[in-house]
Design goal:
Elements: H1 2-19, H2 25-34, E1 52-53, E2 60-63, H3 68-73, H4 79-91, E3 100-103, H5 118-122, E4 126-129, E5 132-135, H6 142-145, H7 149-170
Parallel strand pairs: 2-3
Antiparallel strand pairs: 1-3, 4-5
Helix pairs in contact: 4-7
This protein binds iron/sulfur cluster.
């Protein structure tokens, strides 16, 4: 009986060591961000917002900074704006889990300022730099305040997906 118990214990330890997942580099960075105190924004945030999605995604959406809801939940692009993004992704044949979503600044700046006008001027543009493709568009929250931007945003995402397909076809 003792031997049987020892056998079971050893087997369980082997099993646990096999199923214990080693964190990826991205997961380690995400954990670091959650406890980061490198700037004063850590004093006013509820949660740092590291990012979410497929870490091997072809497309990474990068917003400016977390908003109120994102700060409360620690997740980027949620609430109505997140739904607009999900709809635009679906419309272009993508899903939220197939892309990676994050922000440049990981903690909410108090009283977020409104986006700069340059985005309106340059949306839909594709920039090739250092072997990467950058695509400029509106934050989905902009479509809540200006309904006319909803179709523009959806078309931008479609354009992005078409461009991605062209790149894949070339390679
Ligand atoms: S904004 Fe960036 S640097 Fe500042 S506390 Fe948050 S994660 Fe750290």
């Amino acid at each position: 009986m003792v031997l049987f118990n020892q056998f079971c214990k050893i087997n369980q330890e082997v099993l646990e060591s096999k199923v214990m997942k080693v964190p990826s580099s991205l997961e380690i960075i995400q954990q670091d961000i959650k406890i980061c105190k490198k700037c004063e924004l850590c004093n006013t945030r509820n949660n740092a917002v590291p990012g979410i999605g497929d870490e091997n995604a072809d497309v990474v959406f990068i917003g400016e900074a977390p908003g109120k809801n994102e700060d409360l939940h620690g997740e980027p692009f949620i609430g109505t704006a997140g739904k607009r993004l999900d709809d635009a992704l679906e419309n272009a044949g993508l899903t939220r889990s197939s892309v990676y979503i994050t922000n440049i600044v990981k903690c909410r700046p108090p009283n977020n300022r409104v986006p700069r006008k340059e985005i309106s001027k340059n949306h839909g543009q594709i920039v090739y730099k250092n072997n990467r493709v950058y695509f400029i568009s509106f934050h989905p929250a902009a479509t809540i305040y200006n309904q006319k931007l909803l179709d523009v945003f959806k078309n931008d995402i479609k354009k992005l997906v078409n461009e991605l397909q062209k790149i894949k076809n070339k390679n």
